[in-house]
Automatic annotation (TrEMBL):
Its main location: membrane. One of its GO terms (molecular function) is iron ion binding. It comes from Canna indica (Indian-shot). The keyword Iron applies. Belongs to the cytochrome P450 family. InterPro entries: Cyt_P450, Cyt_P450_CS, Cyt_P450_E_grp-I, Cyt_P450_sf. It is a single-pass membrane protein. Its cofactor is heme. This is Cytochrome P450 85A1.
Length: 445
């Protein structure tokens, strides 16, 4: 069978590599061995090799230059290549799967919602208010930080999007959103009981709940000063003309894209700070300085956020060390030449950016948590900086996500001390997660 599969994919011009078993390919090895599988294949075949993972013939690209080329050249035949389950559940107008003109429209609407002036005037005050009350009574408790940061990312997003506060509506949305997220990471088998089936049902419910919300807003004369308001106001204007279905898909994409990224980075930042007291001390000094002259109830503003240089460095170092994003997926729309090979139409390209994070040429002593490295050189504008992707799909929520994590850290480190309870196992692949939670005991400072 193994031989047959190799022969089946033996085509002139393909990069070297192995295709594994029919149907399953090398998915098991990829998921079980993770980064070691990638490194071993690179040793044998070079930084561009073929494989068959997650149900598709795939070319894995570990060359930073080529990765940049793929991300910068969507128009040359590299469109998004995310799994079917994700596309079905996130909707057909979902920004991360559409391309061409529709992508332009959806992206410009998205950028309008999360631009720096919007963060400064509208979102940061909401994030601040949310974080302050969310972490208010953690003192004296043992909490699961993973659970808390997940809920935080979701609830904070709901407040920014539609001014939804904690209550029955947020609980109903939360339940469906959790099911939706699980569904996007499942095999697309629509059978009662499967995560995919639950995900599709959750999407249906969410769409109807969001449609009700839109209808209510249309018939109300109140102004809400949130993302949904902005989307409805630009509805029909010369800016972005989105119909209701597109508005709903945009909202789902907003929650979905910021959910695991923001929660995991917040959790891992706290973990690294706990393990690196010198970094924690410097971070605390930065935040204590910001709180000087402010009362407990005073919010942080845009200038405060902009002054958090070390905090930003901690967030970037956390993203790098934990590798919250391993890479991104593309699909070829035609046969495309790459490094002397030809990648056939319809193949996936796994733009695997993980190894750049541990490249000693870019990050000396790459296995050391060293936020200071981000202060010296302008690493954020390095051409191989891909923590937030690159090219025309570079994360539009980069600044918003950073502001959320920074605000969370601000209140967390100025209010509390904490220590880990027991040994908390953390997996880094295929997703960063603490399978049994990350338990910490929290006290007032
Ligand atoms: C630490 C936080 C975050 C990280 C590390 C991150 C990372 C990324 C990466 C790597 C991509 C590129 C995906 C690709 O090329 O296929 C991306 C795209 C995207 N991100 Fe983020 N993200 C973060 C937070 C957020 C937040 C808070 C939002 C909410 C606005 C968001 C919205 C998006 C959207 C909508 C896209 C798709 C853009 C497009 O296809 O044009 N992200 N993100």
């Amino acid at each position: 069978l193994l031989r047959w599969n190799e022969v089946r994919y033996r085509k002139k011009g393909l990069p070297p590599g192995t295709m594994g078993w029919p149907l399953f390919g090398e998915t098991t090895e990829f998921l079980k061995q993770g980064p070691s599988f990638m490194k071993n294949q690179r040793l044998r075949y070079g930084s561009l090799f073929k494989s068959h993972i997650l149900g598709c013939p795939t070319v894995v690209c570990m060359d930073p230059e080529l990765n940049r080329f793929v991300l910068m050249n969507e128009g040359k035949g590299f469109i998004p290549g995310y799994p079917q389950s994700m596309l079905d559940i996130l909707g057909r107008s979902n920004i991360a799967s559409v391309h061409g003109e529709l992508h332009k429209t959806m992206r410009s609407a998205m950028l309008g919602l999360v631009s720096p002036p919007m963060i400064r005037d509208q979102l940061l005050p909401k994030i601040d208010e949310f974080m302050r009350s969310y972490i208010d009574n953690w003192s004296g408790q043992v909490i699961d930080l993973q659970e808390k940061t997940k809920e935080m990312a979701l609830m904070s997003a709901l407040k920014q999007i539609a001014s939804i506060e904690t209550g029955p509506v947020s609980e109903a949305l939360k339940g469906e959103l959790f099911k939706l997220v699980l569904g996007t990471l499942s095999l697309p088998i629509n059978f009662p009981g499967t995560n995919y089936h639950h995900g599709l049902k959750a999407r249906k419910k969410l769409v109807s709940m969001l449609q009700c919300l839109i209808d209510e807003r249309r018939s109300s004369s109140c102004s809400y000063n949130d993302m949904l308001d902005s989307l409805l106001k630009s509805h029909g204007s010369s800016k972005a003309k989105l119909d209701d279905e597109q508005i709903i898909d945009l909202i789902i994409a907003l929650v979905y894209s910021g959910y695991e990224t923001v929660s995991t980075t917040s959790m891992m930042a706290v973990k690294y700070l706990h393990d690196h007291p010198r970094a924690l001390e410097e971070l605390r000094n930065e935040h204590s300085e910001i709180r000087k002259g402010k009362s407990r109830e005073d919010a942080i503003d845009w200038n405060n956020y902009k002054s958090m240089r070390f905090t930003r460095a901690v967030i970037l170092e956390t993203l790098r060390m934990a590798t919250v994003v391993n890479g991104v997926l593309r699909k070829t729309t035609q046969d495309v030449p790459m490094k002397g090979f030809v990648i056939p139409k319809g193949w996936r390209i796994y733009v695997y950016t993980r190894e750049i994070n541990y490249d000693p040429a870019m990050y000396p002593e790459p296995l050391t948590f060293n936020p200071w490295r981000w202060l010296d050189k302008n690493l954020e504008s390095h051409q191989h900086f891909m923590l937030f992707g690159g090219g025309g799909r570079m994360c539009p929520g980069k600044e918003l996500g950073t502001a959320e994590i920074a605000t969370f850290l601000h209140y967390f480190v100025t209010r509390y001390r904490w220590e880990e309870v027991g040994v908390n196992n953390i997996l880094k692949f295929p997703r960063v997660q603490a399978p049994d939670g990350l338990r910490i005991r929290v006290w007032d400072r």
